[in-house]
UniProtKB/TrEMBL annotation:
Domain of life: Eukaryota
GO BP field: proteolysis
Keyword terms of this UniProt record: Aspartyl protease, Hydrolase, Protease, Signal
Domain Peptidase A1 positions: 80-427
GO MF, any single term: aspartic-type endopeptidase activity
Identification of the protein by name: Peptidase A1 domain-containing protein
Organism taxonomic ancestry: Eukaryota, Haptista, Haptophyta, Pavlovophyceae, Pavlovales
Length: 512
């Protein structure tokens, strides 16, 4: 995953136990008596992904608010995030959307080493629906390899150097809006320690929606859970614009728009990966052995495009020698990174760069990247001539075989991850205008950022007087009106117990 326009660091090995590397995530499951994460040289892996995050000041929020909307950018944040409502009463958290990992985690109210983020920390004590995940017989076919005081824990190290660890809970996550609103129980990491760019980022945490469960915990993603519960079809889509976007869960392609979709088969359904066989600039092949492209991974949590050394060298050579205005060096804009290539230029100039085309197995139609999609704009320090901006190459050297399609080159398309049929679809569209109602996927749902507003399933507190501290028993009532926030408040008043006493204890028989 990624977050800032980013700090590039060497991949580190986490010890003392073992690694699982999935897309841009390296997960370490610590032993029972070892909490420290130690960095060192990485072990060989079929897929190794350096992650790009840069620590910039957060960009101002844009004013437009739509249901299910995600927001972010490349120039100051380097990530895209969604507002997610967790718990009852619900609390809002902004989570980076990451197709390269499976963990959903937010800072815990008890965390003293966590940074200052967009929203208040998650407090499971204040949620009537939170449940501690015990170490024995965890639900959802999970494994608990890290245990503290009988509670399941987790420790994750991301490849750019950030680390998080904490305790595992389950709680209700809110979906939909109005009459379509509902909640379902999801796995939530409540982190008590965070370092690196996780500590400095604006977003509160991360929501992993990878193709498979990663790491020793093997926690199901929100999409996994919704599919298991038959809430959605096994598909979702995301659509990224320069500063906003949309995440759509479930649904089927609208028949009247089916011809718009460019489908590519997944190379390996353990990842959102494709079989890239050639890259061309303005119709001219890079002439790189296709084996060097290895797995080509779709990873929204990585900011930029990563290419194997030979392919990157050819793209860099073009971008640094074939500028539309003549001598590239005359417009060079220096940043603090030696491998970042930027120029001051007018739109009429940068649109003249050649189209970058990615050719995949399973399709005669390449994926065309315009100059707007393989470059990105940064804010210039100081004044520039009229109508000029600074744009940089949004590609970097992967240092080894393999390709990562990060957020930069996924912009301006609705990308459909059809997990049921093992394929990925691309639809050229204006992502700044896409809403769930206009997505190419009909009959969908989305993450709710309304925290209990509107109608939907509610907590049944008709037997609230029977509640006892330390063992909160509740059931979901289907089809009722009202919301979880109001019902939770009623329950709190009904038994007048302390907030800590209200926290439910692990009881697998009552998993919803």
């Amino acid at each position: 995953m990624a977050a800032g326009a980013a700090t590039r660091r060497n991949v580190g090995r986490v010890s003392p136990t073992w690694w699982v590397l999935l897309g841009s995530l390296a997960v370490q499951v610590a032993s029972k008596d070892s909490d420290d994460l130690v960095r060192g040289p990485v072990q060989p892996s079929p897929i190794r992904v350096p992650v790009l995050r840069r620590a910039y000041d957060g960009a101002p929020e844009h004013g437009r608010r739509l249901v299910g909307e995600i927001s972010g950018n490349l120039e100051t944040l380097g990530y895209y995030a969604a507002n997610v409502c967790i718990g009852s009463p619900g609390s809002m958290h902004q989570l980076i959307i990451d197709t390269g990992s499976s963990m959903t985690a937010v800072p815990c109210a008890t965390c003293t080493t966590c940074g200052r983020h967009k929203n208040p920390k998650y407090n499971p004590v204040r949620s009537l629906t939170s449940k501690r995940l015990g170490c024995k017989n965890p639900p959802f076919h999970m494994r608990c390899s890290r245990c503290e005081n009988t509670q399941c824990g987790y420790a994750v190290s991301y490849t750019e150097g950030s680390q998080i660890r904490g305790a595992v809970f389950t709680d209700h996550v809110h979906f939909g809006d109005g009459l379509t609103a509902f909640t379902e129980r999801m796995v939530v990491g409540c982190q008590t320690h965070e370092t690196g760019l996780f500590k400095g980022q604006v977003a509160d945490g991360i929501m992993g929606i990878s193709a498979t469960r990663s790491g020793g915990l093997a926690s199901p993603t929100p999409i996994d859970r919704l599919v298991e519960l038959r809430r959605i079809q096994n598909t979702f889509s995301f659509c990224l614009a320069d500063h906003t976007g949309q995440l759509v869960l479930g649904g089927t392609v609208r028949p009247e728009r089916a011809a718009e979709v460019q489908w590519l088969p997944m190379r390996d359904q353990k990842f959102y990966s494709l079989a890239l066989n050639d890259i061309q600039l303005d119709g001219q092949s890079f002439r790189v052995d296709r084996r060097k492209y290895a797995a080509t991974i779709i990873d929204t949590g990585t900011t930029f495009l990563y290419l194997p050394p030979d392919a990157y060298r050819r793209l860099k050579e073009y971008f640094t020698t074939r500028c539309p205005w003549g001598a590239c060096v005359s417009r060079k804009y220096r940043t603090r990174y030696n491998d970042e290539f930027c120029y001051s230029m007018r739109q009429s100039e940068w649109v003249q760069f050649a189209t970058l085309s990615l050719h995949f197995d399973g399709s005669h139609q390449p994926l065309h990247l315009s100059p707007a999609e393989y470059t990105y704009e940064i804010k210039a320090k100081g004044a520039l001539p009229a109508a000029m901006t600074v744009r940089c190459l949004a590609a970097f050297d992967n240092k080894h075989n393999g390709v990562v399609l990060g957020a930069a080159v996924l912009r301006n398309r609705e990308v459909i991850l059809d997990r049921a049929n093992g394929r990925v679809g691309f639809v050229r569209t204006d992502c700044a205008r896409v809403q769930p109602s206009t997505s190419i996927l009909a009959n969908n749902t989305f993450l709710s950022d309304r925290c209990g507003q509107g109608r939907g399933r509610k907590l049944d507190v008709s037997n609230a007087s029977a509640l006892v501290p330390g063992k909160l028993v509740y059931q979901l009532a289907g089809g009722g009106t009202g919301d979880a926030v109001g019902s939770a408040a009623a329950a709190l008043a009904a038994h007048n117990a302390s907030r800590r006493a209200l926290r439910p204890q692990p009881d697998r028989a009552r998993w919803q």
